[in-house]
């Protein structure tokens, strides 16, 4: 009986297991697993960055934080660029942590960030910002209507330059509310004031999955019944 209870405790205690549900969050050795999009009429893109120079204009930037590669925007003119990956939320979510590291440099010509609720660079309004969102994938790559969570956003007065900085958020409630659904993680950069380099590295979405309560109950009941039968025997 004691041995069976011990086995039951192990089964229930180990019911949750962690899973990484994003692919290639370190961008090694390329951008496989990610999709890039650029607003028509703009310049630049998300490119693979390595070493200590930006991928297109070859300005000085920090080395990638994880491994030898990162994703980075680089351009000589204004534009709007996104990097995203769609993922399926597990049916059972016990906990979920989103983490990523960003390098930002908007110091060449801009004096502040300007963060309207738009990813459109081709307007008379100033738009100089970085965003990280979790959203539904039903709209276009630059859509803000489907945003479920804004995980990061530059604001006026923020430092114009920051080395790779880690951010971590608990997104358990969001994923539980969207169990079994396809969601999108998007990194976005808009600049029509001056060049803006955005580096992205060490992206992870760690989810501890838990089976359905009824499944745990059935397993527990079966083990307890087995223990009682052994005791009577």
Protein model, in words:
- The protein has 233 residues and is an alpha+beta fold.
- It has helices at 2-13, 172-177, 213-232; strands at residues 17-20, 35-38, 45-49, 70-74, 79-88, 95-105, 128-135, 147-153, 161-170, 182-191, 197-209.
- The strands form two sheets. Strands 1, 3, 4, 6, 9 and 11 form a six-stranded antiparallel β-sheet that branches. A five-stranded antiparallel β-sheet has the order 2-5-10-7-8, with no helix packed on it.
- The longest helix has 20 residues, at 213-232.
- The N and C termini lie close together (12 Å).
Describe the secondary structure blueprint for this structure:
Layout: H1 2-13, E1 17-20, E2 35-38, E3 45-49, E4 70-74, E5 79-88, E6 95-105, E7 128-135, E8 147-153, E9 161-170, H2 172-177, E10 182-191, E11 197-209, H3 213-232
Antiparallel strand pairs: 1-11, 2-5, 3-4, 4-11, 5-10, 6-9, 6-11, 7-8, 7-10
Helix pairs in contact: 1-3
């Amino acid at each position: 009986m004691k041995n069976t209870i011990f086995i039951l405790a192990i089964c229930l205690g180990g019911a949750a297991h962690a899973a990484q549900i994003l692919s290639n969050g370190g961008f090694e050795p390329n951008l496989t697993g990610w999709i890039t999009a650029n607003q028509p009429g703009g310049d630049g893109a998300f490119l693979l960055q390595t070493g200590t120079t930006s991928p297109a204009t070859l300005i000085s930037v920090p080395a990638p934080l994880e491994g030898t590669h990162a994703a980075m925007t680089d351009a000589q003119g204004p534009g709007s660029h996104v990097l995203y990956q769609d993922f399926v939320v597990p049916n059972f979510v016990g906990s979920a942590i989103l983490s990523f590291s960003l390098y930002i440099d908007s110091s060449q010509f801009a004096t502040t960030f300007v963060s309207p609720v738009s990813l459109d660079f081709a307007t008379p309004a100033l738009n100089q910002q970085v965003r990280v969102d979790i959203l539904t994938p039903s709209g276009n790559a630059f859509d803000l209507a489907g945003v479920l969570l804004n995980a990061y956003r530059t604001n006026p007065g923020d430092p114009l330059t920051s080395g790779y900085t880690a951010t971590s958020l608990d997104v358990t409630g969001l994923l539980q509310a969207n169990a079994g659904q396809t969601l999108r993680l998007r990194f976005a950069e808009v600049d029509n004031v001056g060049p803006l380099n955005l580096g992205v590295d060490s992206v992870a979405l760690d989810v501890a999955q838990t089976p359905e309560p009824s499944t745990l109950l059935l397993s527990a009941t079966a083990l307890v019944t087995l223990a009682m039968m052994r005791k009577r025997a």
